[in-house]
TrEMBL record:
<protein>
    <submittedName>
        <fullName>MBL fold metallo-hydrolase</fullName>
    </submittedName>
</protein>
<dbReference type="InterPro" id="IPR001279">
    <property type="entry name" value="Metallo-B-lactamas"/>
</dbReference>
<dbReference type="InterPro" id="IPR036866">
    <property type="entry name" value="RibonucZ/Hydroxyglut_hydro"/>
</dbReference>
<dbReference type="Pfam" id="PF00753">
    <property type="entry name" value="Lactamase_B"/>
</dbReference>
<dbReference type="InterPro" id="IPR050855">
    <property type="entry name" value="NDM-1-like"/>
</dbReference>
<feature type="domain" description="Metallo-beta-lactamase">
    <location>
        <begin position="20"/>
        <end position="229"/>
    </location>
</feature>
Length: 249
């Protein structure tokens, strides 16, 4: 599997573009923290990206989940079953990951927005990539402690609800990096906008809360932002949030 597109954004921190969704590898020697894991059919690409940066799947210390949509948890259960990798997320996201319910854009919402540029091609891709597959994480775990986690990169979970109830960003304070997931993105196939932005309205469980969560991000010290969709943003969080707010009006 080719590994074109992997971007080393800091020392041992890599942004990897999947078929439509990014994941992040944070290395420490031959171990790593993996943040998100793409669509179900991105699995081979994900495994290839680990190999490309010198990490065996069994050496992934944990999978951190920003939120439990199918395009972010696609390989999480595979890693848990195959290698015993813990899959960690905010407590509010656990039942979502177990698929006790599913807060994800519906077919009806997609059809209602089908006239918008890019929506139908994106929907076809999402279906082919496993966007509607039933892939619960059977035993997701909450973060074991408050503050920085004892994992490669010492990531600090930052609760940013709105896209889903338990959405989390992950701050790497020592590296000046913020992994924003879908709380703040830099592009999407259904958006014609460029730069820092919220996802289109149909993708959020509660768009008002998603806007409020930008305030939480705004106070963090980082000048490299790694979104769940779109390219790396090399700017301060404050500037990115200001741009996203302007586009959201």
């Amino acid at each position: 599997m080719p590994n074109d597109g992997i971007v080393e954004v800091g020392s041992d921190v890599y942004l990897v573009p999947g078929s439509s969704t990014n994941w992040v590898i944070v290395k420490d020697g031959d171990t790593a923290t993996l943040v998100d894991s793409g669509y179900p059919r991105d699995r081979e690409r994900l495994l290839a990206s680990l190999a490309a940066v010198g990490v065996a799947p069994s050496a992934v210390t944990a999978v951190l989940i920003t939120h439990a949509h199918n395009d972010h948890i696609g390989a999480a259960e595979y890693l848990r079953l195959a290698h015993g990798t813990p899959v960690l997320m905010h407590r509010a996201e656990l039942p979502h990951a177990r698929r006790e319910f599913l807060h994800q854009v519906s077919v009806g919402q997609v059809l209602a927005n089908g006239w918008r540029p890019g929506v139908l091609p994106w929907a076809v891709h999402a279906l082919r990539a496993g966007g509607t597959a039933h892939i619960p994480v059977v035993e997701p775990q909450p973060f074991p402690e408050e503050g920085g986690l004892d994992l490669p990169g010492r990531p600090v979970p930052v609760l940013t609800p709105g896209h889903t109830d338990g959405h989390c960003a992950y701050h790497l304070p020592d590296a000046g990096i913020l992994i924003t997931g879908d709380a703040l993105v830099s592009g999407h196939p259904t958006s014609r906008r460029r730069g820092a932005q919220l996802l289109p309205r149909m993708f959020h469980r509660d768009r008002a809360r998603a806007l409020d969560s930008l305030t939480v991000l705004e106070g963090l010290d980082a000048d490299v932002l790694l979104p769940g969709h779109g390219p790396v943003l090399r700017t301060t969080v404050g500037i990115a949030v200001e741009h996203a707010r302007e586009l959201a009006v």
